[in-house]
């Protein structure tokens, strides 16, 4: 690994009103290295990356790139300098081909110098083993193909430093493996990579060096070969943390939820869930594994009464739920809680504080003309303390909080209702390791009380450790259900791409 510096940050700080997001950050990225950033939600990672990418301007401090002091005022300036950023949510035009997406924003017209552009792009694609079909439409691509196209885009524009923000969030093990091969190729060719991930095993596998952030400050930079997940987590959190998921063996009760021949259409009118059958018993956690977009979202929303079903039956404790909405569930005493994938869009209202968001679930069942807010405020304070929710006030707009704190509020609200069934769509997506384990413990506590849990997750190791059984979905169909004791990452990975359980 080259010891020459590519990027140096010295004394970088950034505030938003009274909130100090980054405080005197110091960071050094060497040429030809893979450098990971670790930190809890709210540690300052996103703000730091946005400053390196030209989205935010630092309040103070110095940024030096490739030997020159720079003051980046826009992402375009950052890209011209050689800094390319790939976010979790891809910036691609679905209705265009790969070639057209690559040419967007460049000085070369899409309709000119076609052969020369193709030769250059194909040369980069072969050099880094990206394997992008230039004539393929983005709408027809898998998640992995879209990721490769994003990488090809920034390399074509001359990126010397690539920033990958949670790139493997919805990847299968094979897609992650391929991305890591590409990252190593980039390193071999002198490119540097900043890798941001909450998945500790991936950070340990791919990194040369790791920098830990905590409360907006740089805590320490370590060589990956001289550290371990336990030490890194302690640096992130500031105290020792137990990194094992508790295995809870509880006797299973009666069958609580039964889904028969369920077919659900997505927003475009296509079949997202196709003739699915399964059941969950009291005190059981059923995991759902699958590539992003395989039908998990629609399945959860259909069970929760948000999406209408095309055909089939959803039976909860002997009662049919088809055609009923969430409000009817509450009025009929159907004890179900739903943690949606979209925390703010569907689960909570960002402009409101904790108290008002806790009231959302029950305000229309209140019989009094005026709602007594005192018990709700007391409940909000208890949740804030018990779940260590970091907020200036229980009335502070939750949209200004980190993702982990928002998720704790949502989960705390739903679990405080002591539901018989808990439906969860990616409850720990994008959350730091400490918050993840807090949520796993809450799920296990619910299981001990006899709650049935439907858990849609993307981390296969977590599904194996946390769940009793795992059902795998591929393109809306089930490819099998397997006991967690028999499951392996390899088995689940093959089932996720369509191979039926033997």
TrEMBL record:
Annotated ABC transporter domain ranges read: 7-240, 257-500
A GO term from the CC aspect: plasma membrane
The protein's UniProt keywords, in alphabetical order, are: ATP-binding, Cell membrane, Membrane, Nucleotide-binding, Repeat, Translocase, Transport
Q: Which Pfam families match?
A: ABC_tran
How this chain sits in the membrane, per its record, is: Peripheral membrane protein
Looking up InterPro entries in the UniProt record yields:
AAA+_ATPase, ABC_carbohydrate_import_ATPase, ABC_transporter-like_ATP-bd, ABC_transporter-like_CS, P-loop_NTPase
Subcellular location per UniProt equals: Cell membrane
Molecular function (GO) terms for this protein are: ATP binding; ATP hydrolysis activity
Q: What is its main location?
A: membrane
Which range is the signal sequence, renumbered to this chain?
A: none
The protein depicted here goes by the name Nucleoside ABC transporter ATP-binding protein
What species was this sequence derived from? Clostridium cavendishii DSM 21758
């Amino acid at each position: 690994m080259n010891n020459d510096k590519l990027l140096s940050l010295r004394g970088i700080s950034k505030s938003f009103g009274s909130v100090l997001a980054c405080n005197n950050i110091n960071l050094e990225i060497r040429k030809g290295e893979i450098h990971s950033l670790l930190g809890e939600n709210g540690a300052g990672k996103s703000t730091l990356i946005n400053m390196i990418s030209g989205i935010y301007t630092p309040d103070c401090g110095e940024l030096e790139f490739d030997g020159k002091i720079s003051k980046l005022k826009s992402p375009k300036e950052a890209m011209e300098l050689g800094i390319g950023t790939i976010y979790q949510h891809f910036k691609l035009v679905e209705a265009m081909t790969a070639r057209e997406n690559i040419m967007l924003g460049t000085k070369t017209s899409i309709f000119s110098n076609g052969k020369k552009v193709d030769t250059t792009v194909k040369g980069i694609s072969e050099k880094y083993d990206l394997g992008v079909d230039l004539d393929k439409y983005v709408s027809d691509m898998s998640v992995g193909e879209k990721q490769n196209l994003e990488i090809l885009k920034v390399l074509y524009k001359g990126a010397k430093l690539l920033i990958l923000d949670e790139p493997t969030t919805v990847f299968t093990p094979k897609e992650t493996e391929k991305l890591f091969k590409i990252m190593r190729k980039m390193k071999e060719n002198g490119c540097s990579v900043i890798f941001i991930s909450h998945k500790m095993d991936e950070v340990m596998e791919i990194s040369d060096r790791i920098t830990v952030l905590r409360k907006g400050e740089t805590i320490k930079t370590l060589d990956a070969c001289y550290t371990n997940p336990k030490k890194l987590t302690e640096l992130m959190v500031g105290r020792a943390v137990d990194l094992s998921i508790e295995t809870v063996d509880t006797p299973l009760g009666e069958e609580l939820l039964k889904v028969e021949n369920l077919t659900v259409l997505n927003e475009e009118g296509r079949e997202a869930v196709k003739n699915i059958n399964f059941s969950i018993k009291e005190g059981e956690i059923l995991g759902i594994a699958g590539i992003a977009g395989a039908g998990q979202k629609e399945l959860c929303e259909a069970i929760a009464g948000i999406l209408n079903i095309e055909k089939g039956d959803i039976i909860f404790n002997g009662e049919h739920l088809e055609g009923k909405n969430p409000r009817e569930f509450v009025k009929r005493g159907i004890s179900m809680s739903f943690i949606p994938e979209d925390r703010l869009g569907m689960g909570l209202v960002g402009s409101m504080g904790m108290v008002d968001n806790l009231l959302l679930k029950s305000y229309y069942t209140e019989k009094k003309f005026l709602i007594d807010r005192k018990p709700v405020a007391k409940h909000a304070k208890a949740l804030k303390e018990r779940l260590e929710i970091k907020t200036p006030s229980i009335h502070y707009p939750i949209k200004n909080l980190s993702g982990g704190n928002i998720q704790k509020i949502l989960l705390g609200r739903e679990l405080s209702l002591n539901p018989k069934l808990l439906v969860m769509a990616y409850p720990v997506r994008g959350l730091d390791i400490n918050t993840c384990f807090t949520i796993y413990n809450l799920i296990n506590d619910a299981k001990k009380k006899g709650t049935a849990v439907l858990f849609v997750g993307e981390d296969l190791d977590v599904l194996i450790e946390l769940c009793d059984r795992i059902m795998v979905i591929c393109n809306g169909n089930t490819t099998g259900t397997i006991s967690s004791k028999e499951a392996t990452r390899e088995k689940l990975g093959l089932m996720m791409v369509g191979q039926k359980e033997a």
